[in-house]
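[agent] plan:
  1. take the single chain provided in the ticket
  2. run structure prediction with default settings
  3. attach structure tokens to the ticket
  4. add a short note for the reviewer (M.T.)
[agent] executing step 1
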Amino acid sequence: MKPTTTNVALLLCFSLCLSFLPLLNASVNNTLIAETCQNAKYKDLCISSLEAEHASQDADLAALALIAVKVASNNGSDTAVYINKILDRTDLEPAVEQNFEDCSENYISAMQQLDDSIASLVSKGYKDVKTWLQAALTDAIACETGLEQSPGNELELYDKNKIFVQLCSNALDIVNLLATN
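[agent] step 2 finished; step 3 output follows
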């Protein structure tokens, strides 16, 4: 082979090898996500919610914990917006309106607790993170309990709240894993 042809062939091989590096890294990180979610109560949701976040591609366990809390926080914010949208309606029955108002208060509290969780996680105050996540989870469960006892049919909010509970639970499971490492 001529030197130019050899150089081109080497360059092509080198470029091809480099193009596979992101795939190898993604595979390694998918393994980390799978291992991290192994002890989560809602494994499938844990894996899918973390894999959906671009930042998880290069994340270590601490970053995955932060991502999990942020995913829960984003979901909670979306649910809070949904609750407020329903509360803006004028055709709500009083019992249904009361349930939505109670859930709105629960979500205001839960969102503050998730913000506190993020701040504590950044400063590695894992005990505080666990406390705040558990409090957010308790608020979401209180909303769920009110909806279950309701005479109305708030199935959409019930489903949204259920996902929020699961995301908070998974975030707590990941933080518990992080705290033991």
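[agent] step 4 note for reviewer: Residues 3-37 form the longest helix (35 residues).
[agent] ticket updated
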